[in-house]
Amino acid sequence: MGFAQYHEPPDELPPAARTFARLCASLTEEAEAIGWYHQRLAIETDPEAVAVMNDAVGEEYKHFSMDLEFLLRRTPAWREIAQGVLFKPGDIVEHGEEAEAEALEGGDPDSGDASLGIGSLRGVAR
Predict the structure, then answer these.
(1) How far, in Å, CA of 90 to CA of 77, rounded?
(2) C-alpha atoms less than 13 angstroms from C-alpha of 93 in its C-beta half-sphere
């Protein structure tokens, strides 16, 4: 069994981290499959083949969405950022910057504060 989704020794990771990594890998695989179907559908001319592939890509959309929801339920900051970006009209990047600032910095993205919300290490003895 391959462990390409791990960047740390798998036996040192707690079960929740291993499950999270599996779902991240699954999310990536579903996104890849969606991309492949998109390419295939762009050039396919047989209507019956198109119908079959449209049905198959629908399954990939469902699986991607389920994987994403699983991960978002276990990562509150990621969920908060996603809620600030997804399904909103307007500038995607602007929504992303605002959502990130709110979730990780607790404030205004234009404030100049580059904090990740982890506090300062100044004055901490080494």
Answers:
(1) 22
(2) 0
Q: Is 18 helix (H, G, I), strand (E, B) or coil?
A: helix
Round to whole Å and give the CA distance between 59 and 115: 40
Q: What is the pTM of this model?
A: 0.77
Of 57, 82, 56, residue with least CA distance to 69: 82
The whole-angstrom separation of Cα 53 and Cα 45 is 12
pLDDT tens profile 43-73: 999 999 999 999 999 999 999 999 999 999 9
CA-CA distances (angstroms) from residue 15 to 20, 22, 23, 24, 51? 9, 11, 12, 14, 40
DSSP assignment of 94-114:
HHHHHHHIIIIISS-TTS---
